[in-house]
UniProtKB/TrEMBL annotation:
Residues 1-21 form the signal peptide. GO terms for molecular function: inositol hexakisphosphate 3-phosphatase activity. InterPro entries: B-propeller_Phytase. This is 3-phytase. The lineage of its organism: Eukaryota, Fungi, Dikarya, Ascomycota, Pezizomycotina. Keywords: Hydrolase, Signal.
Length: 195
């Protein structure tokens, strides 16, 4: 399972997947490091930081469920070595994970803004936010999103005051969430995407 997480992470980072009608290209990915424990993860994201870039992954394990972060700092690990776990938060089984940057920029909240990891809980479909790089839960930034979700991505708009958006895709619907701060704290505002 840990090997699958790394291969999926490298495929996402390299954007390597076949498209319909395009010639198939074989890409060999040299996996040089794995996690030291088995992680029930099926979704990864990368957090780019000047101090220490991280590989984020959900954890759907019944006992260890939550979110995990592994160090991707240079130089690359030696073949056969393990990725160092930077932080983890075992809160509940989760399904997806992504990162958002600079929440609160330009609003007088925290100066340059705060970086967050976002995931969705499997049992109750609650969107959860965690401070990066520590993975400390952000209690006031939660939102219930009922549905069978299959993909989560983030986007930061430069033309609308650096608004940070999350896009959550499922079998029957897609949801857009605005990540913002106000006087009470961080919020996840929901706006359904119309076809």
């Amino acid at each position: 399972m840990a090997l699958a997480v790394l291969v999926a992470a490298f495929a996402v980072v390299l954007h390597v997947w076949a498209t319909h009608g395009a010639p198939t290209t074989v890409v060999v990915v040299n996996v040089t490091a794995m996690t030291d424990t088995v992680v029930a993860s099926d979704w990864t994201a990368t957090f780019y930081s000047d101090r220490e870039p991280l590989l984020l992954g959900n954890d759907a394990g019944p006992d260890t469920g939550g979110i995990r972060a592994y160090s991707l700092e240079s130089p690359p690990p030696l073949p056969g070595s393990t990725l160092r776990e930077h932080a983890s938060a075992a809160v509940v089984r989760t399904k997806l994970a992504t990162s958002v940057y600079g929440v609160g920029v330009g609003l007088g909240v925290g100066g340059s803004g705060k970086d967050r990891a976002i995931t969705i809980a499997q049992p109750d479909s609650i969107m959860l936010a965690f401070a990066l790089p520590s993975l400390t839960p952000v209690r006031d930034a939660q939102s219930e999103q009922l549905g069978d979700w299959s993909a989560l991505s983030s986007w930061k708009c430069r033309t609308t005051g650096n608004h940070q958006y999350l896009f959550l895709f499922g079998k029957r619907q897609a949801v857009q969430l605005l990540v913002r701060t106000d006087q009470q704290g961080e919020k996840l505002d929901i706006d359904a995407i119309r076809p």
